[in-house]
Automatic annotation (TrEMBL), chains A, B:
DNA-binding region (UniProt annotation): 28-47
HTH tetR-type domain boundaries: 5-65
PANTHER family: HTH-TYPE TRANSCRIPTIONAL REGULATOR RUTR, TRANSCRIPTIONAL REGULATORY PROTEIN
Keyword DNA-binding: yes
Protein name per its UniProtKB record: TetR/AcrR family transcriptional regulator
Keywords, ordered alphabetically: DNA-binding, Transcription, Transcription regulation
Keyword DNA-binding appears in the UniProt entry: yes
Any one Pfam family match given in the protein's UniProt record, by short name: TetR_N
Length: 200, 200
DNA sequence: GCAATTACCTAAAAGCCTTAGGCAAGCGGA
DNA sequence: TCCGCTTGCCTAAGGCTTTTAGGTAATTGC
């Protein structure tokens, strides 16, 4: 009987499509086997286990996102670059919600270090070249931008902002305006002051 | 034989503890039954299905978070209030990672409207009373704050900032400084300008 | 103390994960 | 061309989780 021609790459790709269709949580070895019209056990020649499969999809999504980010950043600087990268994340999450969810998978440290995740941090840092930030403020700003991008996109995707005025597109552009203004005018550290501190 | 005394409330509470111990994704009807030393089917008298159980835990977490937020905000205003609420989210996520993950569960709209989620939005809006923002900027700011809180906490919890200098506590206080500065100096909308727009 | 309720049980079917071992397809070399 | 080896996909099987149906015993209220 003819072989299906399974590969780790093909599994990752099909798994990513499946994730976008039914949600990342519903991606299962069984479902993927059905999609290839193959018995479940056959996948275990290519994939260690269910978690390995999800890791593959995560890595694929991180690569795609990083590629899109790099393309969007090329030739841009300052606020233009900021908006471009921000939109890459948001657009990707809307086009490929399953893949975006996959990209949030917690990778073990070595896998994370070898993944495209590092390119993401580099791209965010590259944006800050258009603003006058020195260390350690640059790192603080990288983390802030990452938090806003991820937080906004995931809340919006989860329906957190749903159906209330003003529309989320308007808020999104205003948030980018605000981040741009903030980066151009990054505040000096406040004194110890009365601000409540975390107890941990 | 003696009865276990199961209740929706007790199930939610035990489920929350279980989530903190093994992770929200590993919370299962079976595991919870084991914890009560009871057969699995018995839980189905109290809980519709697995998703219903997770919803219960989510609602519990949202309540707890809102209660902590309200307590932290009492008697505070301005940056002090901002830092207090921010720390509530972060501290809660660190103390109760499983519950925090549960709070991110996507609720169906009516459940969401009846949940403590609305109190969260109100609290964030209350903070903005200490800053001079009018609609629609106030809503934009509410969404931005929500994004930063959620995004930062979830990235930090997922290890996104792990083991790199400067430490995350320093970044966190600087991020709050930055948000405070931004809210005190909220920028006017930029013109149409050259900024890249989302294609969607 | 008895009836009615309800809490928990047994039983069973279905789906997913994972491992072990078998057959055959397709490749390399003679 | 034919043979053997590798490897891709298979069958079989055990274990865990979900969910439903229907039974028995504990508790509540009169």
């Amino acid at each position: 009987m003819a072989r299906a021609g399974l590969t780790r790459e093909r599994l990752a790709r099909a798994g990513a499509e499946l994730a976008d269709e039914v949600g990342f949580d519903e991606v299962t070895v069984s479902a993927l086997a059905r999609r290839f019209d193959v018995k479940v056990a056959s996948l275990y020649s290519h994939v260690k286990n269910s978690h390995d499969l999800k890791t593959l999809i995560c890595l694929l999504a991180l690569e795609e996102l990083a590629d899109r980010g790099a393309a969007a950043l090329a030739g841009r600087a300052g606020k233009d670059a900021l908006a471009a990268l921000a939109n890459v994340y948001r657009d990707y999450a809307r086009e490929h919600p399953g893949r975006y969810a996959a990209a949030q998978l917690r990778l073990d440290p070595e896998a994370a270090a070898a993944s495209a995740g590092v390119r993401h941090a580099q791209m965010t840092r590259a944006i800050l070249r258009g603003y006058n930030l020195t260390e350690p403020d640059q790192t603080h700003a990288v983390r802030l931008l990452g938090s806003v991008f991820h937080g906004y996109v995931s809340l919006e995707l989860g329906g957190g902002f749903s159906h209330s005025a003003p529309d989320t597109q308007t808020t999104w552009t205003r948030v980018i305006d605000a981040l741009d203004a903030l980066l151009r005018n990054w505040p000096a550290p406040s004194g110890p002051g009365p601000a409540h501190r975390s107890t941990s």
